[in-house]
Amino acid sequence: MKGQKEGISVIICCYNSAERLPKTLEHMFAQKLSDGVLMEVIVVDNASKDSTAKVAQDLWDMQEELPQVTFQVVPETEPGLSYAREKGMDTASYEYLLFCDDDNWFNEEYVQRTYTFLKENKEYGAVGGNGKAACEVTPPSWFEKFSSIYALGCRNDGDVTNVYGAGMGVRKSLIKGYKTQLSDRKGNSLASGGDSEWCMQVRKQGYKIRQVCDNTFFHFIPKERLTNSYLYRMAKGRGETKAQLTLLKYNNSAWATGLGYRFRTDAKILWKALGTGNRVSITYTWYTITSYWKSLLKK
């Protein structure tokens, strides 16, 4: 945009992130930037109950001089990832935004490549990378099958309809002022979808979205997120998110979503899962479908 400084704003949303943040910031401060490209790092402390803000500031204060990098910690007292992202966006100085989760470890060229792609490809409004698992312990046998719900992998090395919020680069002018209707990971809920809402807004304005599979980052997954119980919580969150996005598409009218067709489709999905005889797959499918219908019929 005319008059904008040459740079990119990296937004790291945090909730009780004191233990996870050091490794994430270590990778962020090691980014290689081309001459003249500036990076600001914004850590959003989203109502944390630990020392997230202090840890972040202390880590920055210990850094050797990084002439192309600025840093700040800002608070957001309203719980919910969407609120934290909006706070970061409102704070950002640059047109290009890059969202980094508190457990994402970007490769040293990730930020520069995101910046360059958005600058050189004016028809694209958003771009994503490829998350790789960095598990604290050996993952369970079901992990690969369900890895996508951890925002891992590359859906398509090319044009896509949406990308994960983790590692998403986006033009601020396309989403600024749009208030997402999904609160995204509020409290103990694992429902998400704010990133999908943003992608919808990008497409509505005539822009394309790209995923770049060779621009990778690691997603650290602690042992407590590699249990069956956590997987089933994710299933419930996925069902709730799917219902919310469906209602958003149909102006919050459950009857307009095609209830009969959806019911028949879900019955087939459940029957297929039952046919596998795999308890994890059956339970995951059951929680996803029942959570979807509970959320949908509330409207």
UniProtKB/TrEMBL annotation:
Domain of life: Bacteria
Keyword Transferase in record: yes
Pfam families in alphabetical order: Glycos_transf_2
UniProt keyword list: Transferase
Molecular-function annotations in GO: transferase activity
Residues in Glycosyltransferase 2-like domain copies: 9-174
Protein name: Glycosyltransferase involved in cell wall bisynthesis
